[in-house]
Amino acid sequence: MADKASEAGSVAGQHPLEDHISKTLWKVHELEQQIQDFSEDSQPLLFDRMNEFVNSLKELRQSASTSTIEVPVELLAAVDRGENPDLFSVRHFEQCIERNQAAKGKVKVLKDFSDSLLDAARMAFPDEAMEYRAFRDADVKK
């Protein structure tokens, strides 16, 4: 079983915190199996499993304190409600796309407004509009 515990937590490229989480979850599994198969004779083994689990929790806490991983509170709330975290991520990504499209639309409207304003200024004030255009083009080249 010790081999499975190391297999459960040693995936190549995995973050150390993920490794500790996997190992702790494996300890929970081992502890659960020991409890299901409990008999008086297996009590010392049960205590050993419990101590291993407690030590695993200590390692997990130490790893978490040095980790810079940030998890959005909204994601944790969604998981607590029983939602699939992948679906939450997809939904959030789709919202970002919608906001990006809205921002692009606003930029286009402002660009069109600026062009219309410059056209109107050319008609009303041709000399000043040409000076402004030259100034703007020179500023853009910098």
Q: Sketch the topology as an H/E string, one letter per element.
A: HHHHHH
Distance between the termini: 66 Å
Percent helix, as a range, is over 70%
SS strand fraction: under 5%
Q: Label the overall shape.
A: rod-shaped
Number of helices: 6
User: What gyration radius follows from the Cα positions, in whole Å?
Assistant: 30 Å
- Structural class, by secondary structure, is mainly alpha
Please mark out the parts with pLDDT under 50 across 5 or more consecutive residues, or reply none.
1-10
Q: Biggest β-sheet: count, sense, barrel?
A: none
What does the average pLDDT come to? 86
Number of strands: 0
Q: Can you walk through the features of this model?
A:
With 142 residues, this protein is mostly helical. Helices cover 82% and strands 0% of the residues. Helix 1 runs antiparallel to helix 2 and helix 2 packs antiparallel against helix 3. The longest helix is centred in the C-terminal third of the chain and has 40 residues. It is rod-shaped. The termini are far apart.
State the gist of this model:
The protein is mainly α and 142 residues long.
Keywords:
6 helices, 0% strand, rod-shaped, disordered N terminus, mainly alpha
Ordered list of secondary-structure elements with their pairings:
Elements: H1 2-9, H2 16-36, H3 43-66, H4 73-80, H5 85-124, H6 126-141
Helix pairs in contact: 1-2, 2-3, 5-6
